[in-house]
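tool_log.txt
---
The assistant was asked to compare two proteins side by side. It first ran the structure predictor on the initial sequence, then on the second. Raw inputs and outputs are pasted verbatim so the downstream comparison step can read them without reformatting.
(1)
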Amino acid sequence: MPTKAHPVAPKDMSSTSATKSSLPQTEPAKMAFSPHKKRMLPDKSVAKARKLFANFSLSKFARDSLPPSHVPAGKGPETVNAAQRKNISRKIAALKGTDATNPNPGMTLALPEGKIKNFLPSYNEKAGTLDLGDVLQLMTQKMKGTQFFTNGNPTLNRMALQSQVDQIINSVKQGAKK
């Protein structure tokens, strides 16, 4: 049985006689809506919120604690270049103050002993050299996803590790002399 809110269409909708004008007209459903009354917030809550949000900012940096690499928005490329030069100089100065026990830090490749010549055909065992192109080609062939991980400053990490190795070697030598 048709109701006023939900009319039922005529039985034969495929015929051309059932047009929009022949469908029963309905009024839009009336909703009972009563808006919430505005209520006043307690003064104590408002004061607490104001205190908490007094120093609020959408910036990811706290006020007056911008990192040294931060360049304010709207500055030109010369400002960015100056900031980059300053950061690079600061990093180089920090590395100059360290005692590098290993003058030639680099990347270590772990390869099976019998397969080195297959993977790196330019490897010269006597001279201890190989062609950089071979290394890059090998790396691009074997990389799958995330292969390289870093933890801290690689130079300082290598120096700390080298220092530990030197201590172990010295202790072994001292034990052999006794």
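(2)
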Amino acid sequence: MAEPINLANALITISENGKNEYILLLEGKLFIKDYPLDPKQTFEQSLEDYFETTIPLVKNAEEKDLDRIKILLNWMSNNIEKTKTYYLKNYNNITELYTDINSN
């Protein structure tokens, strides 16, 4: 990561076996797209909140976020060729972000 983990706002893609997984990191909070143990709309809503600059409903990292981040960073360091990090500050909206993701 090019930023401190507790300040980073990034979308991480993991490509493996022809399938993409998406992880959203927002200032120490971690959201996994389609993760069955998280509320259904958390990933999409958090991404929309970021770009629409609305006040996020979820604040401050929790213990589960810290544990997930440790696991993620460890896995990423061992599988760097399968991951790509997109820093949200480099995009004006969700469409621009997904266009870049789909072009890579």
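---
observation on (2): The beta strands are 9-16, 19-26, 29-32, 83-87. DSSP finds three helices and four strands in the chain.
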